[in-house]
Amino acid sequence: MTPAFLLRLALLSVLGCLGVGSAHAAEPPDNVAQAIADAVQSCKDMDGKPNADAVLSTQDLNGDGGADWIADYKKFKCDGVPNPLCTAGGCTLQLYFWDGETAWDLVFEDLVQSYKFGKNGGKPMMYVTTSGDPCNKPTNETCHYTYRLDKDTVVPVQ
Fold first, then answer.
1. Which of 158, 96, 98, 155 lies closest to 124 in space, CA to CA?
2. pTM for this structure?
């Protein structure tokens, strides 16, 4: 075994212990899995070849200690036809927050061009860019929104 191979093996072992990459390892809850299945079916109905492998990830978005689910349909592939979860204005983004017991609730769903998560004053936040339509601008312009990620809801911040 080469030193480079051993180094890669050690790095993968450390990443595995830290849980890096495990966001895709867990099975999604039923409602999240159903949303993905619906997207896959929409693609098939248009005679496309679906690939939803990159759509889901998990992260504790609201800081409650539980993994929340992110469904980013910009990452959905529907070879042969346009992505059915995207329009000229953006792609569907869904956030599912863990309810603290046994379920994940859909707390956010919108067409977005981009998004990022951060903190402001220690509070979890999400920053979203959409097409201009929601803020009464031309579609080719953009709107910017800020949301506070509370325990069980997403709250627009002014």
1. 155
2. 0.82
